Amino acid sequence: MTTTTPSTEDSLTTGGDRGYLRIATEEAYAHPEMYELYRRHLRDGSLPDIGFNSLVGYFLGSEHPQPKSVVERLQEAGEKRLADMDRAGIDHQVLAITAPGTQVLDAREGADVARKTNDRLAEVCAEHPTRFSALAAVSFEQPDAGAAELERAVTQLGLKGLMANSHIRGRYLDHPDFLPVLEKCAELDVPLYLHPTTPPNSMIAPYREAGLDGAVLGFGAETGLHLLRMITSGLFDRIPGLRVVVGHLGEALPFWADRIDHMHAKQVASKRYDAIGPLEQKPSDYLRSHIWITTSGMPWTKPIMFVRDVVGADRVMYAMDYPYQYELSEVVEQDELPMPLEEKKEFFELTARRVFNLQF
Ligand code: MN
């Protein structure tokens, strides 16, 4: 029998007095020059991505205090962010370029944004090495150059992985064009974080007309599709050293795992689709061999415990999704997850240290 004292936000102190540090693993950053570029594109209507114009147009154009405060916080990674982290008991953030990042831009603009973002993130981590680590950005449009920028970011700047904000102007990472970047992740032994963005033009219409293209469902539908494509295309068999982290409790794939395995096996047997062939494992097995899952935006005890049960307790870790979902009560809820202290330490701290090779 366990007894728990009702916990409050007063319990949110940093420093590990509960027996673990809280490492938040999907925390967003936006370089101010990226937002200047976005503003120009929004004004000129020069980017055809409907989701970009809808989502980024809203965040950068709205006078509502909520998006304004998010946009302000996204661009800062110093004293204000540290104060927010202190208030929420967050010891350490793993920072990464916010969606859509470089992935609506052409090769030249994307590479420029990636380089500036990586340089700035490296400075931020050097200023506060115990509070921040960061993932690299690249342009995926010229994959060899993207792979070279990833190598620079990891080996020279000390960044800890690669952020991919889902589709790349309507293309997915199972496309053979992107192999050089993914092979570089494996070669450097750093994870790729597959993060949502709005669905591409080919998918967004029925979501958008209902107002559901954002985080409410469209993000998850698109990113879950992306991850499943990576699995069923055989990408992890081709690059066995590729490690992927995905947020939002696995973008629903753990819940679908049994049906995916069942239907995939039938499709392999019937040879219905050229794109569906035999894999070395069942599709759901890749959730237990190549994929790690964070709780960003999903601070709900029941599905957290379900996903841990499906994929293994050592593969599920904490994320806040700052500043989009800066909710102190959600940290308290996850402090209260029904698991022993050593598993909570895995959940909040040790899995992140292992997956991202954090050194602080
Ligand atoms: Mn996020």
Structure in words:
The longest helix has 21 residues, at 107-127. The strands form two sheets. A five-stranded parallel sheet has the order 4-5-6-7-8. The chain has helices at residues 32-44, 50-61, 65-74, 79-88, 107-127, 143-155, 179-188, 201-208, 218-232, 235-238, 248-251, 253-270, 286-289, 301-311, 328-335, 341-356; strands at 23-29, 92-97, 132-134, 162-164, 192-194, 244-246, 291-294, 316-317. The mean pLDDT is 97. The two termini are 36 Å apart. The chain has one domain (19-356): Alpha-Beta Barrel (TIM Barrel). It is 49% helix and 9% strand. It is globular, with a radius of gyration of 20 Å. The protein has 360 residues and is α/β, with parallel strands linked by helices. Residues 26, 28, 195, 247, 296, 321, 324 line the site of manganese (II) ion. Manganese (II) ion (MN) binds next to strand 1.
